[in-house]
User: What shape does this take?
Amino acid sequence: MAVIIEPFRIKSVEPIRVLTAAERRVKLEKSFYNTFLLDAEDVLIDLLTDSGTSAMSSAQWAGMMMGDESYAGSKSFFHFEKTVQDITGMQNVIPTHQGRAAEKILFSVTGGREKVFISNTLFDTTRANIEYTGATGIDMLCAEGKQPLVSAPFKGNLDIDALKDYICTHGSEHIAMVITTVTNNSGGGQPVSMLNIKQTAAICKQHNIPFFIDACRFAENSYFIQQREEGYKEVAIVNIAREMFSYADGCTMSAKKDAFANIGGFLALRNDQLVTPCRNLLIITEGFPTYGGLAGRDLEAIAIGLKEVMDESYLQYRIRSVAYLTEKLQAAGIPVMQPAGGHAVYIDAKAMLPHIPVDQYPGQALVAAMYLEGGVRAVEVGSLMFGKYDAQGKLIPAMLDLVRMAIPRRVYTQSHIDYVAEVLIEVHKKREHIKGLQITYEAPVLRHFTAHLRPI
Ligand code: F0G
Assistant: This one.
């Protein structure tokens, strides 16, 4: 059979509603052209994020009912702990209410002024949590990863030579950690190869630098390794995941992605060294070590989801459905990132809207146009999210101005995706009429969440 179907059937449905174009215009103006500020019920197809938006399985819902809500030592914690230990090989498992809480704890213990964290690409909350401690985050993405329209199998790879050069020039004493993000969310959901992980880990070991994995999308990354990297065709996803983690000293994970949970996360540590300070901080900020910031039922849902996500027919459907949308848009001449990533389709907004200068946020302008055209909500991953100002107050733009359409797991069917493609094709036809945006309000950190904008 050539058709890859959704490997599930639908038992429970949630209505979505269509607004008129005029209603959408009012909603967008009220939200200051920032789709984060829209009410979800005013969105038809919500591709803002794949985080916490998954449809849970009937097994996960059943698990929710079985959740043990004991304050200490709950059965659900042990199920969760054992599952994480089994996949990561890391013995110390610290539950948190989401990924960034794990980051906050880890970087509070390991960060601080004059410390440097090196990554293929740090996700925005990861970078913010690093910088919040006074430390610096440096992205070292491989050259292919910086060219959205060039296809390569592992565009999420860390630039090994850049890492070696950096250590050679600056030494390694102040490098708090190297973090590889799998898949590389901010770099287009592109995978990292096993070889690259292995090489990164070897350099870290040689220089006594801890090596961590930001594991939000570990199963999607494992699937790409299985499909694209020599020697892994016959290896089960769980074993690929185990190998990936075997090179790392620890990991952080948002269970809102590849664990199909609506909330949750964890920090896992191989060695005992950091465990005590991290657990102490956990108790102050999240909760007792056997629940972190979670209910027993959440721990149960995560444990079940972590196992479900490694099912190959699910991963085949998942990766194929993202590629399907990418191919449709590409066929219509829309500049999409090549090849398709794991969780999202990324449009190169600078290439699509060359008449809008970067300081007028072409990505955000495209996001607004997509909502106006068809009620589709996407997110800018570009100069609004990552831009900084120089001493003169001039924008230092992000490396790429992308628009991300993240596909929630197990939520939308093929006809929803066909509709999204139609909306984009319409927007593309009208692209010359799309106007740039100007910021009228911004917060000092993570400004994209709350910024106000208006068309120029
Ligand atoms: N790391 C990566 C690679 C992520 O993609 C995210 C979240 C986090 C860490 C933080 O996890 O949200 O549970 O605190 N990414 C979401 C997204 C928000 O839309 O890509 P969190």
Remarks:
- The chain has a mean pLDDT of 96.
- The chain has two domains: 21-50+311-455, 58-308.
